[in-house]
Amino acid sequence: MLPYAPFLLFLPLLVLGQDGGLSGPTTSTESLGYSCDTSKCQLPACNCASTSPPGGLHPSEVPQFIVFTADDAIQSYTLDAVNQFLAHRKNPNGCPIKMTYFTSLSYTNYTMVTDWYVAGNEIADHTMTHVGTPPAEEINGNLIALNALAGIPLSSIKGFRAPYLNYSVETLKLLYQSEFIYDSSAASSIPVTDPNTDAYWPYTLDYGMANNCLQPGQCRGEPKLPGFWEIPMYSFFDKLGSRGPHLMDPWLDAANGASKINDQDTLEYMQSTFNAHYSGNRQPIGLYTHPIHLAANYPGVNTPKSTINMINAFLDWAQEQQNVWIVSNEQLLDWVQHPVPVSQLDRVSSLRCLTPQVDASAKICNGIPQNEDGLLSHCAFSDFPFYTCYGCPSQQPSPANPNPEQQAPSGQGLRHRLPSNCATAFWDPIAGNCICNSKTCTFFDNTRTIGPNGANLTGGGTGTTNSSQTPSYVPFNGAVPKSLVTAGVWPALILGFVGWLIGACLLGMSWTP
């Protein structure tokens, strides 16, 4: 039972119950049946499932990647929840940390998606309305709406994660047909210290899946989807080993078979699992989050300060180790496709920090708060209002109609959606023009040169675990009107709480706040 207000489990912003929990291995040597021809499957287009680093690199030459992802709706409080772990940190090259946000559009504020993307983070697909084993319209509708109303280029939406991690072979085929680059829904559920571990580096499905082999229709060479990548989700393991895996939001699980959550126990098994990866073949490790569970400013919810401090303590400790990088799935995959030793990471363009150069005084609705101030359209739908740079639709987007006809306010013209030949930060949706061209659009490179021969490769700017100190991050877009909360969240909150009470009575459940 979660130690936080239990009615949160029933909010539309959340998954019902803990999304992505594991109780044991999801594959076996008998069900695997995997075989890959390394002479034909070669980077960057193909990679065999392997526990060894790509490119034939020795583990000592390989960075230890910590992948940070978030799932579900994007709102001010979910971005604040992410920022309390990442905003004060930097990678060894001095660049701010980037992450992947698997976005569902129900209850999402579109302008924050735009801002988060323009700030350098990856936006990925999590279906429109958060349904497991999703049909094509849920997956593709999300692509269309993210492009139309958040200005995310279709070419930049590369990844997908299934809600509840509930997917099928048909889901993977749909993603392949829609030209996604990768899926990240399959679990690595056996420790790296086990000779039968399924903690593979990201691999392509030219020779089928190698994870979740207990799922019908997977593995033994199926499904064959050439060039389509699987980025496994790497579990943490407590003292029970393969019988004690922890995948998404591991801090919501009790450790070592106990009945209550203990943050110190969680920290210990997170550090132990990290060490197993770090001292072995350095397969990535992941923090896969539902940020709402860790929101520090969500109305009516007690902030889980001890857990927040524990997660920051883990990241502080990890960044004190040599060659540790906190990255998005997109950044991880770029390195896997073009592996270089840590001494040459300057060559990996996705790890650099490039800031679009737009005049701070320019009035343009482009995902940069100082430029777009006063230019956002407020789409006041009764179910849940949102803001966007790209004009309000006449009705809320849905899988059946992800891009409704635009409805311009009286006396104003229609806004122009992002074209394929202009970056989001340089597109003026009100004027309908790109403020620069391929020769004049510039980015400022803030990347710091990495030390020679792998020296000085610890991360910088690690945070504090002292809860009494003021956080070093600034709340993201904190000036959003309160109507964004009161109009949509409170009815859902009340409904969810009533639903929880009914369920508790029926099931004879009890809880302690």
TrEMBL record:
The keyword Signal applies. GO terms for biological process: carbohydrate metabolic process. This is NodB homology domain-containing protein. Residues 1-17 form the signal peptide. Keywords: Membrane, Signal, Transmembrane, Transmembrane helix. It comes from Panaeolus cyanescens. The chain crosses the membrane at residues 489-509. InterPro entries: CE4, Glyco_hydro/deAcase_b/a-brl.
